[in-house]
Amino acid sequence: QVHLVESGGGLVQAGGSLRLSCGGPGRIVSINGVGWYRQAPGKQRELVAGIASGGSTDYADSVKGRFTISRDNAKNTVYLQMNSLKPEDTAVYYCNVFAGTSYYLPFGSWGQGTQVTVSS
């Protein structure tokens, strides 16, 4: 099973920024699509942003214009730059892999995620 590792979360004030990182074994992150997903308490896990292997991206409407997903193939890492953070962005953030442009159908196992807390 594919298992990615997330890092970079933390506590930040509203309006602040964080950058999350996602890595995995070998070139798994470089050759597959990678998505960032989040789950807030009492809510279902949702797609935040995804980048397909060909470079196309997709974002949740709630983060468009504030979050940017990018990939560094040399480092086998995918990043999520989060700016203008809001309290409603508070959640555990996970990354996972998907095939093609199936942003909503990740096929890896879920890791522990990284907690993002935005204070008002």
Short key terms for the protein model shown above:
4-stranded antiparallel β-sheet, 120 residues, 6-stranded mixed β-sheet, mainly beta, 1 helix
What do these coordinates show?
The chain is mostly beta strands. It has 1 helix and 10 strands, in the order E-E-E-H-E-E-E-E-E-E-E. The chain has one helix at 28-31; strands at 5-7, 10-13, 18-23, 33-39, 46-51, 57-59, 67-72, 77-82, 91-98, 114-119. It has a 6-stranded mixed beta sheet. A 4-stranded antiparallel beta sheet has the order 1-3-8-7. A hairpin with a 6-residue loop joins strand 4 and strand 5. The radius of gyration is 13 Å and the shape is globular. The N and C termini lie far apart (38 Å). The mean pLDDT is 95.
